[in-house]
What we know:
Elements: H1 2-15, E1 17-18, H2 27-31, E2 41-46, E3 54-57, E4 64-67, H3 70-84, E5 93-108, E6 116-130, E7 133-147, H4 154-186, H5 189-202, E8 209-212, E9 216-219, E10 228-232, E11 237-244, E12 247-254, E13 259-266, E14 270-272
Parallel strand pairs: 1-4, 2-5
Antiparallel strand pairs: 3-4, 5-6, 6-7, 8-11, 8-14, 9-10, 11-12, 12-13
Amino acid sequence: MKKIFFLLTIILISCSRNIQISPILQEDARYNIKPSEMTGFSFHFTSNPKADNIQITKRRLDNKFRYSLNSPFKNLLTEWFYIKFKSNVQPENEIKININDIEYETINDNFLTSALIHSVQLTVGVELILNKQKFLREFSFRKTMRFNPNEANENIGMDKDIMDLLETFITAIDTYADDTIAFIQDFDTSKIDEKEKEKEKKETLKPEKYVVLEPLNLREKPDWKAKKILVVQPNQIVEKKMEFEEWVLIEYSDHVKSKKFTGWVYGRYLQKIDY
């Protein structure tokens, strides 16, 4: 039985036709990539076995097509990386991109024709390590395309549709990298105290103060996994320093211990105090 199953598998694979994808960034996509001022990056890509054998199958055995996303996606990301960061002999920062999951399905568009509707959803994880700080983000996009195996030039249409999907990820990753690098450059936590001291000398505006509504974990970084400094209890008054997405950098004064603590809290449970 095992031999029969093995032979059937070989037959099924041999009957399938590969759809070739041209992994080259389009001119518009290349134009929109702005080289970064931050250098010293290494790039790592982790493929997914499920993305190596995506099938478009009809009821008849001779109408089976297959393609892979691992290699084309890696090639596009590598091209993006060298446009964005160029190369560096001693990288200090890292970019890790993983294909976390992939789902796809094929349905008949019309039983009277050979046209098919093929839908694929790709989920990609991005990890940026900048100045020894780790930032994580996940993107998921779906592309629905029409495929007619009886049309001679259909492979060209499929190639374009799949490239559109992959370039959507390139654009999202490029924007995320820009935003994260800008945050690191402009709001480096190690420089916040110096900036605030200079600001206090030049301005006489009252600081923004907030009251804590629920117990809040004060963390070293704007990340749920970051190290916890302490728990700020409800009804405590804190001073806002800056924001990053849904996180707020605050200064908390512990009058019992006569100490001041600076860290990040989740901003949903802060209420501004009006003077």
